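Quick one, T. Sequence first:
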Amino acid sequence: MGMWQQKKFRRQHSAYIPTSKLPAAVSVKSSKEQIPTFYVHGFRGGDYTTQKMVASAQNFTQSPAFLRATVDWSSKIHYSGYWTTSKFPIVQLVFKDRWIPSGTIERWFNQILSDLYQRYHFQTYNAVGHSLGAVALVSFLINTYNKPLPKVNRLALVAGPFDGIVAFGDLPNINPLSPEGKPAFMTPKYLWTYINRIKFPHQAKVLNIYGNINDSSNTDKYVSVSSARSIKYILKPQVQEFIEYNALGTSGEHSQLHDDKHVLQTINQFVYTNN
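Structure tokens:
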């Protein structure tokens, strides 16, 4: 990053962020002890995508406040809400450009993570990504493997199209997985992820949630079960822990997964316990 870009970055991220002080029972003494959780939506998503995730996390962690980082149409980041003194501050990312591609999600996540790290000096963080947001988080962690950033602790991936989207690089029931989880056909993006898998953080614990509307398509309507599960073949041998969760029926529909109470409970138990 050049000097002009560094100055521009500082100007964009100089906004004051108020802190909500919580009761001692749910607070930590230093921000270095905190493990923030970032919620990232995907293509054609918005604040509504992760709103129930955030609300359920607030309830689970007894935190009445959270921080929202909104990237507007002019590529500026606006913070609203509060950073909290909780062990698990909650950060929701919102992109006004709903047609945002994976690479751009990565770039903005990098800037927001870097900014908050510079402010609060936390050492580890959690992240939850839905759909293309899940794909972007995996790519981000590979691309920044040697960067001076906090380490990812727990990563929850929800309905990630890791090996194509239905009608865009994938079709129902044409890409079977081997017993080890290897897909018969690999998209260029999947192949890149596989080739660079050694760069993925080995200390990470990963939860992969996929849906199946339970008809003959074996999809969540937009992402096939094979595509969503294919990340197992890449990450399971690389990480400390890899868990899968399958949502069936109505709750397994792509846009219902992020609101389903059982999915939310699974995410919260994974992200916020045994840290």
